[in-house]
Design a protein that fits this description.
The protein is α/β, with parallel strands linked by helices. It has 5 helices and 14 strands. The protein has helices spanning 73-78, 114-124, 140-149, 164-172, 187-197; strands at residues 4-6, 8-14, 17-23, 34-40, 52-60, 63-69, 84-87, 102-106, 128-134, 154-157, 180-184, 202-206, 222-227, 230-235. The strands form 3 sheets. It has a 7-stranded antiparallel β-sheet. Strands 10-9-8-11-12 form a 5-stranded parallel β-sheet, with helices on both faces. Strands 13-14 form a two-stranded antiparallel ribbon.
Length: 242
């Protein structure tokens, strides 16, 4: 996997959430694809050694953005104000675009890939409804940013909700009116969307897995799937992440 040194244009912090924009003149990403990213600086050690897989948040005018939560040393280094950046080209299989109407469902910081998806669907003239969870633990600055960047979305605060995924799904109402439901969120939300859509409407789920090689060689990101009634495994980096 080749990593490219790119020019960081902007970083913005919302508590433990970071928006990072950089100049990208390579192949344009498809909604749902991801990049492998790591911080780069002179004399910096290779700790951590592996880059982090991050969904492409948005792309326009040769500017690509990543939205992520700081959870460990790797993402903390990416959020540093003066850190250089090494990134791969867009990877993986993204969302298949439907003619609509469609619903976009996002949970927490995993709303990230839905921005580019929404932009692409708007360009195609597809009718879409957007439902985004705002966790009670999210900083107020993040909630404000989400409301400003998704002005047409239905925002669902889940502070104190026992079943956060169901709280979001309850806002959708009848699913049969949609041609496709696109979802990106924590595992619990994806499972709830899958269950609710089963036998009713097609669902496309963007999974988030730890990755090492991002080329399908190590099978470290394999997830269980059912094909023709049999359980098998698919690699999130190649067969997915959608």
């Amino acid at each position: 996997m080749k990593l490219h040194s790119v020019e960081v244009l902007h970083r913005e912090r919302f508590g433990d959430h970071t928006l990072l924009r950089y100049r990208w003149t390579g192949a344009a990403p498809e909604p749902g694809q991801f990049v492998m990213a790591r911080a780069a600086a002179p004399m910096r050690s290779l700790d951590p050694f592996l880059p982090r897989p991050l969904f492409v948040h948005d792309h326009y005018d040769e500017t690509l953005s990543l939205l992520f939560e700081i959870r460990s040393r790797g993402t903390a280094l990416l959020a540093e104000e003066d850190a250089g950046l090494l990134v791969s080209a867009p990877l993986g299989r993204g969302f298949a675009l439907d003619s609509g109407p469609v619903a976009l469902v996002g949970g927490g910081v995993w709303v990230s890939p839905l921005k580019l998806l929404s932009r692409r669907l708007a360009w195609l003239g597809v009718t879409r409804d957007v439902y985004l969870e705002i966790p009670g633990t999210a900083p107020r600055a993040y909630a404000i940013w989400i409301s400003e960047n998704y002005p047409d979305a239905t925002l669902v605060p889940t502070d104190g909700s026992k079943d956060k995924a169901q709280a979001v799904l309850n806002r959708l109402g009848g699913l049969s009116r949609y041609a496709t439901v696109y979802a990106s969120g924590p595992a619990e939300m994806l499972a709830a969307v899958k269950h609710a859509c089963s036998g009713v409407v097609l669902a496309q789920l963007a999974v988030r897995e730890r990755m090492a090689c991002a080329s399908g060689s190590c099978y470290g990101c394999a997830v269980p799937v059912w094909q023709e009634g049999k359980k098998t495994y698919a690699r999130a980096c190649v067969e997915g992440p959608v």
